[in-house]
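Internal tracking record. Fields below are filled automatically when a chain is submitted to the structure queue. Please do not edit lines marked as system-generated. If the sequence contains nonstandard residues, flag them in the REMARKS field before resubmitting.
Queue: standard
Priority: normal
Entity type: single polypeptide chain
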Amino acid sequence: MLAAERREHLLGLLARTGKIVAKEVAAELRISEDSVRRDLRELAAEGLCQRVYGGALPASPAVVDYDARQAVAPGGKRKVASVAAGLVRPGGSVLLDGGTTALAVARALPKDLDCTVVTHSPTIAAALLEHPRAELFLLGGRVFKHSAVTCGAAAVEAAQNVSADLFLLGVTGVHPEAGLTTGDAEEAAMKRALAARAADTYVLASSEKIGTASQYRVLGWEKVSGLITDADPHDPAVERVRQLGVEVLAAD
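SYSTEM-GENERATED OUTPUT FOLLOWS
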């Protein structure tokens, strides 16, 4: 089989099954695992897959910069945000992650809601300035411009001194096996620090993130209370997450 044919085969397998196991593909095509891994490296370099141990998973389309992400699935993000905003109770406290879906959550919160919002996103903080009854805390640190959030040691230390009822977590990849992932190691560490300070963590995931993975793991499913998504409830990845005991909230 020619290299171009192998490439098409791998991409087709990824689309059909949501993963590639290098050992299985090598046996099927009667080629070496090294050849498969080389093909996967080339596909990953083009952003067409995310390499993982033993193979590859679909790459998330949500790893582009902040401005570009605002144009990705805006309708789905609004649906997810509407459900997520309903989880913030009067008098309650919420850790609100950065990102475009979290920004949609901030905009979806009722203007008269009496609550406490803690965030490491200057963009989120600015969006809540017109919510007169919301107590607002902004965690400082080095600004990661790609996602318009603070991260690094100072931000993690600041996060360790707060607590909340709820953490609304944004990620770029949501996969039943790989867990929750994002594209930057320090950002992943900040998200873990925030999750550790909340009683419950709910994941904000519009449908394009479902079944995909990015380079850095944030959390496993055992650390998550629920997933909020507008993806088809019968999507195989969503069903497998539900089988793991995670509550799935449909954003219709």
